[in-house]
Design brief:
The complex is a heterodimer. By secondary structure, chain A is α+β, with helices and mostly antiparallel strands. Chain A is 14% helix and 26% strand. In chain A, the strands form 2 sheets. Chain A has a 9-stranded mixed β-barrel. Chain A starts with a helix and ends with a strand. Chain B is an alpha+beta fold. Helix content of chain B is 21%, strand content 31%. Chain B is built from 3 helices and 6 strands; from the N terminus they run ααβββαβββ. A 5-stranded mixed beta barrel of chain B has the order 1-2-3-5-4. In chain B, 44% of the residues are buried. The chains are: A alpha+beta, B alpha+beta. At the A-B interface, α2, α4 and β11 of A face α1, α2, β1, β3 and α3 of B.
Chain lengths: 272, 140
């Protein structure tokens, strides 16, 4: 866990990471009856809200594109490269170079995204679009607007063994409370559902520590372990700011005009 | 402060290029297929407006207004997603077949008649951008 000083130190340094990761997300134009965002929405709360109910609501990744960080809430540091074992690192670097070269040549490679497949875990927690958290008895449900992604965290549930966990996009998640922190363990993510092209085995475990930094700021500390591919835990943080009154939009890949051409590049179909 | 940020811009961009896959994190797909350095302004008439995920599309007949020799042709214009556009003020019904519009686009590198929207000017003169990931126009 990063301490407060570390966070503060990384504040100015990485104001740009949001530009890379961000999307323009304003307020919902139709939500006229929604309450206006509070002026000091992310100010540390004088009293800590009860995290067992107060995580419920709509959230937006923080800081958003073109958004200045709020005082006291420096952005999270950029996600480091995965500590892949040496025998897998070269292959991963070659893949990244292939992707970068294709981009530079103006012929981006077709990908799961282009095929309109959802992020899966852990990528869905990057908050591409707004996110909704629902806390109900025995369950925390997290919905990502992009691709209508839903993950269900069952509190106190026993995870299956790695071998018995059916591979899924969002895997199988159990949660428990450690004080004010919701600790979530996830296994069983499909091996071809990769975050940043990093390979993983069926022994990958995603551990998350979700906690409210204030009434309106949520932190997700992510640790990925995989005894097959990683030589050390892969760690990063994501931050979300409450988006008061926001109503999630639907997202169905209804008509995808992107296709894979004979070279493997993503192309756009012309004409209706 | 500015110096610090500039240094870290480089650091962040470098790490992104090395392995963070920032482009795929931005949107449904990379925009590298479009040439943002040579933007084109097209004026014409809307034939079809498709308000769907993963992208909104405008089908229009028009011509490059800065090319005197240009002939009318059909263009396919890719916009961001309904969600991104809704959050910057678009509405599902603000473009209709028959509308006269002007668009600034980053054309397809293949030379096919289509591109990525940078800015649309509606019949009533209102202008809209295409959201953060698509970027802003660099011509007028």
């Amino acid at each position: 866990m990063m301490n407060h000083n570390t966070r503060r130190a990384s504040a100015r340094s990485f104001t740009v990471c949001a530009l890379l990761a961000g999307l323009v997300v304003g307020s919902a134009s139709w939500a006229a009856d929604a309450p206006a965002p509070a002026a000091e929405s992310a100010k540390p709360a004088a009293r800590t809200p009860n995290p067992r109910t107060a995580m419920t609501g709509s959230w937006n990744r923080y800081p958003d594109i073109d958004e200045k960080p709020l005082p006291g809430f420096p952005p999270a540091a950029p996600i480091p490269a995965a500590p892949l074992k040496a025998q897998y690192k070269a292959e991963w670097e070659a893949r990244r170079k292939e992707v970068a070269d294709a981009e530079a040549a103006g012929k981006p490679l077709y990908s799961n995204y282009t095929a309109c497949l959802p992020d899966g875990m852990p990528a869905m927690m990057m908050g591409m679009f707004p996110m909704e958290v629902l806390q109900t008895p025995g369950q925390v449900t997290i919905i990502q607007e992009a691709y209508n992604q839903v993950r269900r965290v069952y509190l106190g549930a026993t995870l299956p063994s790695f071998e018995e966990a059916e591979p899924l996009f969002w895997g199988h998640s159990t949660g428990r409370w450690e004080g004010d922190t919701l600790v979530v363990e996830t296994i069983g993510v499909k091996e071809d559902v990769r975050f940043r092209d990093v390979p993983h085995s069926n022994q990958m475990r995603i551990s998350e520590r979700l906690r409210l930094l204030s009434a309106n700021m949520l932190e997700d500390e992510v640790t990925v372990t995989d005894p097959v591919y990683l030589e050390a835990p892969w760690k990063w943080r994501w931050l979300y700011q409450r988006k008061p009154g926001y109503r999630m939009l639907e997202y169905v890949c209804e008509e995808n005009r992107e296709y894979r051409d004979e070279s493997g590049a993503a192309r756009m179909r012309i004409g209706k | 402060m500015k110096k610090i940020e500039a240094r870290h811009i480089v650091a962040v961009l470098s790490s992104a290029l090395l392995g963070l896959g920032a482009t795929v994190a931005l949107a449904h797909h990379s925009f590298a297929m479009f040439d943002s350095d040579h933007q084109v302004k097209v004026a014409g008439t809307v034939k079809h407006f498709q308000w769907t995920n993963p992208h909104v599309y405008i089908e229009m007949d028009g011509k490059n207004v800065k090319d005197e020799k240009a002939a009318d042709q059909h263009y396919t214009i890719e916009c961001a997603s309904p969600g991104i556009l809704t959050r910057i003020g678009w509405k599902f019904n603000m473009v209709k077949p028959g509308d006269t519009i002007t668009v600034i686009i980053a054309p397809l590198r293949t030379g096919e008649p289509g591109g990525l929207l940078k800015q649309i000017t509606l019949s009533d003169g209102r202008k809209f951008l295409n959201g953060g990931p698509a970027g802003k126009p660099n011509i007028e």
